[in-house]
Records
---
Amino acid sequence: MTTLDQLKSELAGNERLTDDLRRVADKPETVAGLFPAAGRRYGREPLTGGWTTDEAARALLLSVSPADQVLQAYRYGDTAEKLAVLKALPLLPIGDSGVPLLEDALRTNDTRLVSAALGPYADRLGQEAWRQAVLKCVFMGVPLKEVHRLHDRADAELGAMLRAFAQERAAAGRDMPPDALALLDQLKEA
Amino acid sequence: MRIFDPHIHMTSRTTDDYARMAEAGVLAVVEPAFWLGQPRTSPGSFTDYFDSIIGWEPFRASQFGIRHHATIALNPKEANDPRCRPVLDLLPRYLAKDGVVAVGEIGYDSMTPAEDEAFAAQLALALDHELPALVHTPHRDKARGTQRSIDVIKESGIDPGRVVLDHLNEVTVAAAKDAGVWAGFSIYPDTKMSPDRMVTILQEYGPERVLINSAADWGKSDPLLTLRTGEAMLKAGFSEDDVDRVLWQNPVAFYSQSGRLDISDKSEVEATFAGNSILRGGS
Ligand SMILES: [Zn+2]
């Protein structure tokens, strides 16, 4: 997994960002205006490891902010900002305090937010909530390859839920997504 | 015909409307923050609404290939409610968003001192955030309300070329034109403006700095009246380029002043008129 230090070194030449990180460290409330404007202020070019400049800059801004500002950045974020917070969560020293953000994202009907909530930070999500989230992915058509540690965490209970769902789909004459069928197969063998 | 509806309240419309709009040639919309028909009682109710027009609505629109941007403000009607006014302090967070292309709808409802204050404060926010402003003109006492809005705009120091005065009609259009602001017309059944009346206004004033919108919302309204106006223009002898100008190029030009309008994949779309297609470059 990409680390904050890697992001920092990739963006070391971005002077505007370097200045802003110092500003936020001095005055945490300034992050409220800088975080939404990240794409316009620092650029949107792709970096290595599946990150873009604005996402990485947002992660770095959060890394110098207190936890309450992280939660506010999500609370008042547009979709791109919320996605950036979710992506940054596993890199931030905030313990479990970001779990309610995952729960919020999983309640939405936006496929991008639902899949972003199931990254590495979802290791902190309880098993019951995690199963419901995986089932929601199947229901919404979110590819299961987006789910971090899917095959480690999938258990018999999830298998039972998926089987019941498959029966409902069959009754309605609708198909199950192939990745969900493959997961069911794996759980049967276990 | 490619259509940009510069003022429509999609939060009140169904997903079927998005499908019909896409079919009619609507490629982009701007959703201004406004009154919901039911009074709100706290700032939290506003921020949930703002979240919806910068989050959920763009997502819904994208399912139909429609690009969705928003404008953010405390509307004039609710500026009169002391329970709502604290939302003014939260506006800077939203005015910093990529998808927010103007401050609006601001302006007057009943021309009270509280409205004066909110209007001036939000024009100042537009200047601070380098955003254009969308100004609603009142439905009652419209002529005086329009003149007073123009006075406040002039006093604020904002460039009139970065302001649209909306819901104009035959009585108020001349004052807006003289002031150098953009002239917005809401083609709305029964109350505001009809396609045929709009054509007459265009014949008199020309297509320059004119924005045509449906202002469709929770009232008896129709998101396809932009298309109907384009059709009425062609029938009255306007050229396809005139139609493209008022229904596409003008709103693109107005909101591009924010520096945040993202229609990168839309501008290259071929404009088609009455079954004939003409190729044009990005604008
Ligand atoms: Zn409106």
Note: The radius of gyration of chain B is 17 Å.
---
Amino acid sequence: MEMRSSLAHARGLGAAKEGVGHWWSQRVTAIALVPLCIWFVFSAIALMGADLATFQDWLRPFGNALLMVLLVIVLFYHAYLGMQVVIEDYVSGEAAKVTVLLIVKFALFVLATSCVMAVILVAIGG
Amino acid sequence: MASTERPLSPHIQVYRPQITSVLSILHRITGVALTVGTLFLTWWLVAAAYGPEEFTRAQSFLGSWFGHLMLWGFTFALFYHLGNGLRHLAWDFGLGFELPQVRKSGLAVVAFAVVLTLITLIAAYAAGGGS
Ligand code: HEM
């Protein structure tokens, strides 16, 4: 007997009908977040109590702006996937689950977009 | 999908808390806490785009005693979640699955989180962040 499920069988399974794609995305974002978060902690230490001019000078170089946008995108995607699992586990009842999922996912999407917009405005403006 | 009364697992009330289970739920708690923390990250970045007044407001909130307390909390949550996340990734590669190893790596993650949080705090205050 074949002890492993075939890929075709695994596709589309799970509470969210996403098969293993969700699991993989959670891992890939987790690995990317390790260096990004370490960079962020170093940066945040350097920026504690900074005024806006200092902050702008720090964010304006392309490298820092790019890393900040990358961090924001990967972090919100990881949180989005993670919160989905938590909600699926704890919110019972299909209607309530779908509602909470929609609200949280929409909120995270708006936050992520706001962050990206803000970084771009600071980086090109002022 | 016949029944909505599906069995729950595990019955938390009859479980004795163990290092494995406590650390496991802590990963989830820190993940959710960090997700809440994204509100402050967003505020900080958006404030910078709004202008000096709003940015000063955000910075002085983060610089208040409550802001500091919160940032310490997020720092610990981040390092715990990062360390334990790496532990999860090791498990995904099939490493460290024996129970004694699981206990040992769990304690290592807690030590890692505490030490890195302390180092970060010291660095932050040494960098003049006390203001
Ligand atoms: C710093 C690097 C990070 C790593 C290495 C990491 C790693 C992981 C891993 C491996 C999981 C899956 C755990 C499982 O399968 O049960 C996970 C879950 C999660 N992560 Fe992260 N993470 C990181 C940062 C973050 C950040 C910054 C946030 C929030 C903004 C976050 C929020 C979450 C949430 C909400 C979950 C779901 C928790 C659960 O299902 O119990 N993570 N993380």
Note: The domain at 19-126 of chain B is CATH 1.20.1300.10 (3 helical TM bundles of succinate and fumarate reductases).
